[in-house]
Amino acid sequence: MKRFISFLGIGILFGIVMTKSEAISWYRIYEMFNFQSFHMYGIIAVALLGGIAVNYLVRRYEIKTVEGDSIQPTTKSFAFKRNLLGGIVFGLGWALSGACPGPMYTMIGNGFSIFIVIIAFALLGAYAYGAFSERLPH
Amino acid sequence: MIEFISQPWPWYISGLAISLIMFLLYINGGRFGVSSTLDTICAAGGAGKKYPIFDFDWKDRAWNLVFILGAIIGGSIANHFLNTEQTINISAAAINSLDDLGVPFDGELAPLSIFNWQSLFTIKGLLIICLGGFLVGFGARWAGGCTSGHAISGLSNFQIASLVAVIGFFIGGLIMVHIIFPLIF
User: Nearest CA to CA, how far is A56 from chain B (Å)?
Assistant: First the structure.
């Protein structure tokens, strides 16, 4: 229950940040891919630098989880074709719908109920990937 | 204080808040990566019986579903209690491009002329809503992550996979906005 409340609270903070930063806005994504504002690049750059600092501090001070386990910063397995081709497909969808997965959920909270359909199709996309993954280049 | 946080947040505050969220997820035994919730929901729905990729115990990742439930609630809180009725603050250059594209800027989070239920009966609406969602889900799982998992979590840990994926995100986004948008709008 305590764990539930913690993750719910962090999620609420995330939803507020995504909304107030305007990163959930279709217009902001359009503007970003048109290089017409620094806003989105600023958000991503500061989040990235902050993330580097977090990873450094976690390693330097061997910060543990609240349950006392060690923290392993995120690793991603490298496979050039998979990362690049999957990334391109994702980018096409990100610019088209104006939302990556986090903002999709947050837009529902902002009253854009049509994002239920967008998420349903994102789930279908994830399912289709699972179905065809063996036939795709990785 | 409420008035202060009700303003649109500048990029540096927003960016720092995102790295704080990554840290809070770490110390609670999670990690920052939203698109894996798509797999988790597929697994919870029984997709593991058909495809081995979904054959994992989704309950191990249930924390991430609680996180996105929070994101929906957080979006609603920001919309109802932290909203100064201001319009989205995009640049004049973007507003001009939108006019040229035929999608006049309406000041909302997303163009209401597209993101509504009636849109599902138009080809443009179907493309944006259905194909857009599909490509995000398919691409995120193929690439092994999305903006949160690759561009923030992976890149901040200097993962080559994430660098390649983020380059892919931009290739795809640029193709869409500069080559495909003029064809569909």
Answer: 9
